[in-house]
Amino acid sequence: MRNTYLFTSESVSEGHPDKVADQISDAVVDLFLGIDNEARIACETLTTTQLVVLAGEIRGRGIYEDGQWAPGIPEQIEAAVRATVKRIGYEQAGFHWNEFRFENNLHGQSAHIAQGVDAGAEKDEGAGDQGIMFGYASDETPDLMPATLDYSHKILERMARDRKSGVAPFLEPDAKSQVTLRYANERPVEATAIVVSTQHAPDYYFHGGEGDEAKYATLRNYVKAVIADVMPAELLTENTVYHINPTGRFEIGGPDGDAGVTGRKIIVDTYGGAAPHGGGAFSGKDPTKVDRSAAYVTRYLAKNVVAAGLARRCTIQIAYAIGVAEPLSLYVDLHGTGQGATEGQLESVLPALVNLTPRGIRTHLGLNKPIYSPTAAYGHFGRTPEGDLFPWEKTDLVDKLKAALK
User: Fold this and answer.
1) pTM to 2 decimals?
2) Is 250 part of the annotated catalytic residue set?
3) Which of 380, 131, 146 lies closest to 270 in space, CA to CA?
4) Of 82, 176, 182, 364, catalytic
5) Distance of CA 225 to the CA centre of its chain
């Protein structure tokens, strides 16, 4: 391993156009799972200036059967979409929750996909698609996440709370952050650069006119205060460089400034580039889709390995074939940090602790519930499990894992 290096991760706020799309797609997932917990959903969203378009394939009792919508469902979909955009905070001329044009192009699931995925009398439910999924954990932070991504998320979460509470009324919903840390002996020791670009109210930028500098200073000082509050003090030094709205003016943002599409922020959603990614997005998919559920269970397994003190870093890969229940492979990499167990031992023990078929994963983690809207901004991982939310972040396998390795 290199002794000293720089590493960077970025995050985007709930008001970023791609994240608006993700949240809309997951609002549809939650709506349908709340009606039929075995519903099949693949919902894609496009957002742009005063327009939201849904497309994809769905199936569910009391939702869409025999080529027809159940009574009232199209209206419930539109209401859920508009409520999501309202919660994010868009009431702008270019994108307003109550004024954008809405298109619902969802339709029935392919029967050819259904026949390979559904359980039958002689077979278990198969995976919803082929593919590879990865899970990762690191002891860099209490959340067992890469520090660069963890801090990037937390900066934007804090800014969103302050915007909605009125503490920072000059903020608008769209924002991005980026944190660069210097590592020594694989541990973060200094923030070398922090970037925050946030949509703002009129005139909160500096362009040489009288009074502009004072308003921009208000925004800049606020952002620096958030950074200082979120990040460990020892990482912020006299060498830390801050880039706050480095392009200058950022009044036009969100779907009005750039089109948004579901699934374009998969690295923000996962590990900020610190771990491999299988390529599949999460939002808009019901948990029979292993793109989602298997990525959750591999995070769960990797986090429990690190929480058990068996490694400081852990990456797990799993692979599936569409229509086949059992995974094709399970791979564990401890990155040379293992203690008390080898990769081979973990590859044997972990499948004995959790049934890694699609239904086994959903049953173990309790995924057939409307729990997905909160995942669609600020990362699917490194979150606090609470009630039914974020069950893959629990460390309830630690004792069983230690016992199995004795």
Assistant:
1) 0.95
2) yes
3) 380
4) 176
5) 25
